[in-house]
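Dear support,

I submitted the protein below through the web form. The confirmation email said the job was done, but the results page showed an empty box. After a refresh the structure appeared. I'm attaching both so you can tell me whether what I see now is the final result or a partial one.
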Amino acid sequence: MTQQPDPRLARLKAIFQEKAVLRGDFTLASGRKSSYYFDGRKVTHDPEGIALVGALVSEAMERHGLRALGGPATAANPIITAAQLTSQLRGYPVAAFYVRGEPKGHGAGKLIEGNPPPPGAAVMIVDDTLTTGSSILKAIQAVEEANLRVALILVLVDRRQGGAEALRAKGYAVHALLEADSSGNIL
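What the results page shows now:
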């Protein structure tokens, strides 16, 4: 028996295509040039988009038995919050945190903010878009230095430009809700 595709993924794809695919000349976080850009914030700050993301990410956490998630600030912040809220509503509450680009220059000077789980815990790392994996790898470094174990990386869109392969080559499990082709079309 074949499994039916999740209609929520089709709707998420439509929202991405409608609101988040920009055309022009862009420099990506990786430093690469591109004729298209995925503005994930147009999806994660859309009421329907963030509701879908929260449900899909929290369900993935539960399926994998994970009780904590985090990711690089700032793109991952709404994903983390939506998944944490949805997990609470589903009766599967999870801890959440985010990783700053650099330690805060005042207060406690922390790199990891929020409520990370205790050392040794398995966590999910989330982000909106994956190109080379450099942003995610920076977050992973901080997470592993805090003695947490990355059990799964989940991204909203994989640009299919080597990031997933690079992360898998380092031993990380990677899952993308959506993928894009080389022209920026969401598949």
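Response: this is the final, complete result; the empty box was a page-load delay. The radius of gyration is 16 Å.
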